[in-house]
């Protein structure tokens, strides 16, 4: 039948801010670039390899599982790239590629697509991938390279066995369980402070450089992709908790600066805990979430079996996110609380 | 008489591109009477008016042709003199079909006899003034179209202490109210004084957004020597500062209770256009037969603020403003945030037509219903403090009763949530569906 | 080592025991007494839980049969077998109703009916109908956004070229689609009937013609030719299914091309 010119008709509003999921994901990727650059600088080819493997396999798994589940969304929203990148940054640089791929299968295939795809996953996919690997391959997942290893750019570096050194957190934990006190060489000096800030220590690919992560965090704050609530609450809680422990007994507890700069705290607090899908929606809820993450992290670091607790704490808090949302519903305009002072009393 | 900043800031809100420069400095132009006027019987909130004329009747300008049907309804008058061609159903801006009176103008534009105002309104009885306003068929000209005489007759148990004149015009693109304040400040002042007398309120605030310095200046000048507690309250430029509940909060700090009316917190809010219409009715005795509307949008060759007769079709209205120079993808009756998209230009101007907006293809975005990523931007933007993400999730699954529990009825459909949503979810449409369901349940119960 | 295992086993055992006791006690005291016959009747029902009988699922219908003495012939998905079984169980006489199927009374697909605008929003018929009256020029026609498809428990409805089509062989006559359609286009008709008026438009002829190539223009040709089997509802012809169609010539003669024999159109459809 002959058709006249048809206009588009929808409900209001007819204007839009221009925000899109694609753009948010792109911003997260941009924000992670300094950390990726730092990791390549410190760990060489290994970091590049693991990052590339994770991104490519995440995209592939995303595409395959979406096809299998009959979801017509493409991979254009870049969320799989973000997940792959975050997982890579959470893995030891020397991890074999096939293990990284297994991690991606857990992250994308199970933690994300089985739960319904983007927006429906209750747990942070990258962290599920990491924790699955940690449980499945405990040895490989705790084998760390030295940062700035002179061999890091030699062609076949990934065939070379990692020169296994413990992460600072791991070293402290081992020393504590063996001798009960922290050896003097692990205590923080101003030199080690600077090294920790820059990232000159062993650890996961992307967690080492606090400076690079903070630059990324500032970019995300500026782009309004994250709000300050979760990182500040998370890091603040860790700082206060560590401060109290250190004040109580400085022989067995490391100072605040050590807890803030070592391990995955910066990466976790800025990039993992702030994942929109798995963190609370309300600002109040975000504060609760951040404090919870901080408390759990310190509990695990101080008393738990693992030296590091950021991943576990975020995953545990992910589980209670719906409850936090429910408990922190904002007061709706015009629904006057009992002790409100506004003049709505002429009824 | 002072200019003060609004004291309070309601939460939420957004900062869209205002695009007011397209028509902000264009003087109001009077449009010649179109060859055919279709005067809708539903130009206001509430029951459509009852037609009083039939095919072949001769009518004069200002002659009553539709009678208010019920308490919340308003009279309709002939916008010019001429012959009634038909009384037939015509589409309205929201897509309904409502009886309209088609008038073929005779070109003489002759007023009906006996048009006279109440010159001594200062000493007149309030009942007489309200009756005159009701007779003139005045309804809110900001967009919602609530019959004004009802608003001006609050029940005795709701004392009114504050009158707010709404000149915020927070909808992007629209500039009709702005031009009214710039060009007709003196008449608006008289209108304010009349309403102040009817309601016998002491406090009067004229609410204007900070992006309209010219309006503020013009109103300030016109109100310079007014007595009593009258102030211009400058609102932060932010959508939706023109929304009744948000505006009352910004100025008085009082929250209109859920499901309540401004009168519950002692306020009455009148739009500047309505205030002007009240002045015209009381001083000159003229019913509403025309209004100022903004025809705008990037595709329009010459965007204008037009004084147009009610019943003028959108086709004629566009023609007066030139044409569309490039492709149009969307036509909106009203502003871009709360206006209604039109399938064509068949609809005719009513008392609530605040603007006619044309959008080019690249200015239109599509709703896509992608999954919510819980970014919380809608929660941050919602001026009513609702959780649109959660509500839309429920409404998508048709869990209407749960949505009702989460107060979907408090939604004012301002569009801030959809505007901010990166997943391009049709959040406002979900809310509308939810509200329609609740209304249906309530009707069933009755 | 052994002690650790023993302690663990013991603790777990104790927890299991306590839980078991709590469960069995609560099963005894919190049990809801129910007529055993309800469960037995439920067994006879097809467990489609479609709600077509007017009750909230098979269990509710079973309860209604036993407690309220509801008629036993309400279950359409079960058909004659279920009815016979229910009749045997309750001792009631099993009078089978005729098998009914849902039919979408609109033929205006994308090639035949025009649209007045491009709709953008929630993919749902009720939502689409509330935006400027729906995107179809005809304000009575099938919008094709699949609200009926989503409620159909038997997956018997499909959107073909912009309108809903019921596959009669899959239809379990639950009536869920009839309730879901915001335009009341879907009607339950006897399964044996294949001649329908595929139009729902009450508009006058010229308006219908503008909107759709296969609309009822209210010419009354069918009433003249078909006798009492067609009746006029304003400007819309409707079938009276209680009277059989005497002469199938009307299918070809209908000037609006809206009287369709689904049997024929299906075979021609396959040959095309």
List keywords for this structure.
heterotrimer; B: 446 residues; alpha/beta; Rossmann fold; five-stranded parallel β-sheet; 18 strands; C: 272 residues; alpha+beta; 3-methyladenine DNA Glycosylase II, Chain A, domain 3; Alpha-Beta Plaits; two-stranded antiparallel sheet; two-stranded antiparallel ribbon; 11 helices; 38% helix; elongated; disordered C terminus
Identify the most extensive interface between protein chains: A-B, 47 and 76 residues
What proportion of the residues of chain B form beta strands (DSSP E)? Answer: 15-25%
Alpha-carbon distance between the two ends of chain B? 49 Å
User: How many strand segments of chain B?
Assistant: 18
Using the 3D structure, state the CATH architecture of the largest domain in chain B.
Answer: 3-Layer(aba) Sandwich
How can the largest sheet of chain C be summarized?
A: 2 strands, antiparallel
Tell me the Rg of chain B in angstroms: 21 Å
**How many strands, which pairing sense, and closed or not: the largest β-sheet of chain B?**
6 strands, mixed
CATH architecture of the largest domain in chain C: 2-Layer Sandwich
Give the beta-strand count of chain C: 9
Task: Report the span from N to C terminus of chain C.
Answer: 78 Å
Number of domains of chain B: 2
CATH topology of the largest domain in chain C: Alpha-Beta Plaits
Task: Count up the helices of chain B.
Answer: 13
* CATH C-level name of the largest domain in chain B: Alpha Beta
């Amino acid at each position: 039948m002959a058709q006249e010119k048809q206009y588009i008709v929808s409900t209001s509003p007819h204007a839009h801010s221009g925000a899109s999921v694609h753009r948010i994901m792109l911003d997260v990727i941009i924000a992670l670039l300094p950390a990726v650059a730092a990791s390549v600088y410190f760990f060489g080819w290994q970091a590049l390899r693991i990052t590339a493997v994770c991104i490519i396999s995440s995209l592939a798994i995303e595409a395959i599982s979406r096809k299998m589940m009959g979801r017509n969304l493409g991979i254009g929203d870049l969320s799989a790239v973000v997940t792959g990148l975050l997982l890579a940054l959470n893995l030891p640089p020397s991890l074999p590629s096939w293990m990284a791929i297994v991690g991606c299968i857990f992250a994308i295939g199970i933690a994300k697509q089985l739960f319904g795809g983007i927006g429906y996953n209750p747990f942070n996919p990258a962290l599920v991938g990491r924790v699955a690997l940690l449980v499945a391959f405990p040895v490989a997942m705790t084998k760390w390279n030295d940062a700035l290893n002179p061999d890091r750019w030699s062609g076949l570096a990934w065939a070379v066995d990692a020169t296994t050194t413990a992460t600072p957190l791991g070293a402290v934990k081992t020393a504590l369980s063996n001798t009960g006190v922290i050896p003097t060489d692990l205590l923080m000096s101003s030199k080690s402070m600077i090294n920790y800030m820059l990232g000159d220590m062993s650890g996961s690919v992307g967690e080492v450089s606090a400076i690079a992560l903070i630059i990324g965090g500032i970019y995300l704050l500026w782009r309004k992709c994250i709000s300050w609530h979760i990182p500040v609450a998370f890091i603040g809680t860790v700082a206060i908790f560590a401060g109290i422990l250190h004040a109580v007994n400085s022989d067995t507890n490391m100072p605040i600066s050590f807890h803030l700069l070592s391990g995955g705290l910066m990466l976790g607090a800025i990039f993992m805990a702030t994942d929109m899908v798995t963190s609370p929606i309300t600002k109040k809820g975000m504060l609760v979430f951040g404090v919870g993450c901080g408390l759990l992290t310190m509990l695990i670091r101080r008393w738990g079996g693992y030296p590091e607790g950021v991943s576990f704490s975020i995953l545990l808090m992910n589980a209670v996110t719906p409850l936090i949302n429910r408990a922190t519903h904002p007061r709706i305009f015009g629904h006057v609380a009992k002790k409100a002072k506004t003049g709505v009393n002429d009824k | 008489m002072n200019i003060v900043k609004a004291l309070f800031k309601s939460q939420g809100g957004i900062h869209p591109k205002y695009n007011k420069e397209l028509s902000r400095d264009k003087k109001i132009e009077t449009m010649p009477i179109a060859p055919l006027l279709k005067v809708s019987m539903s130009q206001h909130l509430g029951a459509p008016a009852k037609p009083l004329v039939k095919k072949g009747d001769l009518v004069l300008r200002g002659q009553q042709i539709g009678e208010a049907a019920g308490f919340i309804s308003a009279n309709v008058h002939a916008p010019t003199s001429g012959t009634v061609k038909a009384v037939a159903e015509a589409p309205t801006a929201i897509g309904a079909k409502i009886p309209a009176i088609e008038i073929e103008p005779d070109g003489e534009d002759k007023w009906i006899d006996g048009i006279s105002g109440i010159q001594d309104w200062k000493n007149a009885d309030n009942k007489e003034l309200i009756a005159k306003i009701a007779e003139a068929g005045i309804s809110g000209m900001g967009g919602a179209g609530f019959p004004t005489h009802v608003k001006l007759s609050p029940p005795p148990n709701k004392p009114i202490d504050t009158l707010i004149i709404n000149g915020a015009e927070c909808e992007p693109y629209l500039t009709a109210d702005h031009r009214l304040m710039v060009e007709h400040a003196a008449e608006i002042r008289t209108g304010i004084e009349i309403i102040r007398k009817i309601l016998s309120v002491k406090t009067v605030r004229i609410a204007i957004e900070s992006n309209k310095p010219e309006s503020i200046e013009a109103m300030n000048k016109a109100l310079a020597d007014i007595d009593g507690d009258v102030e211009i309250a400058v609102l932060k430029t932010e959508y939706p500062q023109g929304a009744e509940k948000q505006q009352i909060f910004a100025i008085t700090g009082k929250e209109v209770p859920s499901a309540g009316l401004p009168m519950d917190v002692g306020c009455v809010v009148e739009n500047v256009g309505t205030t002007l219409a009240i002045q015209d009715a009381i001083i000159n005795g003229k019913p509403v037969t025309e209004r100022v509307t903004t025809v705008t949008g990037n595709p329009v060759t010459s965007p204008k603020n037009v004084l147009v007769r009610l019943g003028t079709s959108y086709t004629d209205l566009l023609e007066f403003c030139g044409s569309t120079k490039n492709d149009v993808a969307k036509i909106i009756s009203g502003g871009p945030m709360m206006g209604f998209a039109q399938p064509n230009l068949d609809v005719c101007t009513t008392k609530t037509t605040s603007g006619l907006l044309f959008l080019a293809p690249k200015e239109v975005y599509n709703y896509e219903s992608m999954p919510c990523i819980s970014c919380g931007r809608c929660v941050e933007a919602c001026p009513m403090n609702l959780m649109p993400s959660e509500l839309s999730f429920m409404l998508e699954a048709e869990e209407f009763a749960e949505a009702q529990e989460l107060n979907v009825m408090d939604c004012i459909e301002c569009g801030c949530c959809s505007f901010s949503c990166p997943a391009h979810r049709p959040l406002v449409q979900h809310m509308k569906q939810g509200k329609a369901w609740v209304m249906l349940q309530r009707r069933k119960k009755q | 080592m052994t002690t650790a295992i023993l302690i663990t086993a013991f603790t777990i055992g104790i927890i299991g025991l306590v839980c078991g006791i709590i469960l069995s006690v609560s099963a005894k005291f919190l049990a809801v007494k129910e007529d055993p016959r309800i469960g037995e009747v439920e067994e006879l029902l097809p467990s489609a839980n479609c709600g077509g009988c007017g009750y909230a699922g098979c269990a509710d219908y079973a309860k209604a049969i036993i407690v309220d003495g509801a008629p036993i012939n309400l279950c359409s998905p079960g058909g004659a077998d279920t009815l016979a079984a229910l009749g045997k169980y309750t001792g009631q006489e099993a009078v089978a109703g005729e098998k009914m199927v849902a039919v979408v009374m609109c033929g205006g697909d994308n090639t035949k009916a025009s649209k007045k605008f491009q709709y953008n929003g929630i993919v749902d018929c009720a939502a689409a109908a509330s935006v400027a009256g729906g995107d179809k020029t005809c304000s009575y026609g099938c919008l094709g956004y699949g609200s009926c498809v989503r409620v159909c428990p038997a997956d018997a409805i499909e959107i073909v070229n912009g309108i809903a089509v019921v596959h009669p062989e899959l239809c379990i006559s639950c009536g869920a689609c009839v309730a879901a359609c915001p335009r009341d286009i879907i009607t339950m008709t006897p399964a044996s009937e294949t001649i329908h008026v595929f139009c729902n438009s009450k508009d006058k002829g010229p308006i219908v013609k503008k909107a759709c190539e296969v609309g009822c223009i209210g010419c009354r040709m069918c009433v003249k030719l078909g006798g009492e089997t067609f009746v006029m509802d304003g400007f819309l012809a409707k079938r009276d299914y209680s009277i059989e169609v005497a002469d199938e010539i009307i299918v070809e003669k209908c000037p609006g091309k809206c009287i369709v024999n689904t049997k024929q159109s299906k075979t021609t459809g396959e040959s095309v």
